[in-house]
User: Fold this.
Amino acid sequence: MKATGLIAVVGLLWLAGCHAGSAQQTLLAEGPGVHITADAFREAYLDYLLRSGQTDSPRLRRLFLEQMIREALVAYEARQQGLDRTPAYEEEARAVETKLLVEAYARHVLYDTVRVREAELAEAFVRINTEVRARHLWAPTRAAAESLYARLQAGASFEELAAEVFRDTALARSGGDLGWFSFDEMDPAFEDVAFRLRPGEISPPVRTAYGYSIIQVMDRFTKPILTETEFAQKRPLLERYLRYRKQQAAREACARSLADSLQIRFHEATLQRLYARIAGRVEQEAEGEREGWLQAPLLTFGPPTERVTWTVADFREQARLTGRAQREAAARSPEALQEFARGLVVRHVLAERARAAGLHRSPAFEQARQEALDRWLYRYVRQQVESGATVPEDTLRAFYEAHREDFRMPARRAVWEILVPTEAEAQRIRTLLATTPFEELARRYSRRPGAAATGGYLGFVAEAQLGEVGKAVFAAGEGEVLGPLRIADGYVLLRVGAEQPERPMTFEEARPLIERQLRPFFARRRWQEHLAELAARHADRITRHLARLDTLHLTSPTDA
Assistant:
């Protein structure tokens, strides 16, 4: 589960932690473009141990150091080739600077107050040895969540309410069942409540990064024997992680408080139109009209005497500095878009405060900036190298011949669609079918992008591609019109056409499936070959201080 909205925009940016705050410069590896300090290694290695669950060992340390060296060499060569002078790099540099400014402000204002108590470490140790099975109901607002909670209290079941709030998903069919999960697998607020509930108990609405959840724990299991030795081994990583969680909570509280104090106000008509454009419900506009739209005011914020206005263009510029996943999450609903925009405002204000305080002028800030951009260069080069990987033709054909029976074209039906936002409108259009051809009504009324050109024709589609309505389509007779049917985007009328029966795929039809299956192997191999060639070129120029690595204390803030 990944956070969305205001907390995600600010919270994810704050994750770009600066480990460069220490003045310690004990080197573990050095060479062209390689300058790996003990502090940098410790920070990255501890994060890796936390994420992977692996146990520290001399062999693992050396493998991890080699990976850091490879990453540094890739970034060094990328800079030698001028990739740090491209528009893509410059845009990433602006995004990185904003992230680090927000992080610097958090460290400057919030982090010194964070402490981890012994009782919290003990509780976390129990949690990492516990699994919980829970189900939940989700709502985008507190009012909607309170309404669901009241209906539960009045006797409604999780099953019937889940079918309402989770459309076309496994959660709708399972009564909101999330299955078994353990420590750090869910939103922190969700997790805190779930681990404290007794089996069968239902929580009031809980605010998370995704909206609001009502949680019921169905079962739990805790490892029966927990020893002091195990606790001592896990303690450093638990303390590190709990400090991060507390820092995150402080950031979220700060973000919400700041958002409230800024009195962010939206121009509702512009917000709704922006959402419609993002959701693909607005046809292409003329150039002049588009320019005028970009200058439309979207929101205002700040004290009454110094209100700041953001236009749509301002919003788009700020949104470009966030990740693709965040932007996609913002497109889920008008409420999600509004929360995303609020997060952008908070991020902007915090970054400006950090800049005004001169936090960007420190050597630690510049070092963190350089390291973040080096990581981006590594990812960029890897993507470029792997994108050039190809699967040999003889390998494709050999795989097809060996697995020919696995490649079959499923039965498909020709389908035409009219998509509209309300059931009433769908019913009205259905009555018009008595006098007007389906294609003409699709061109006139369907909200599906491109329907005006295709007359609503979706082509020949398999049952699995149609989701919940697939069974009904394949049970219908040729020429039959189905609907209105509820789907995630609104309501649809579907006209069902001819059927193509299941049959074996030809090699050319199976080729894209085979390539998709085999290409990751060849992409990884091409990347490993690139890294091996790079390492060989610099083999005599890299110095590793392995004795320092083997004796490095992971829990020490600095090296002696």
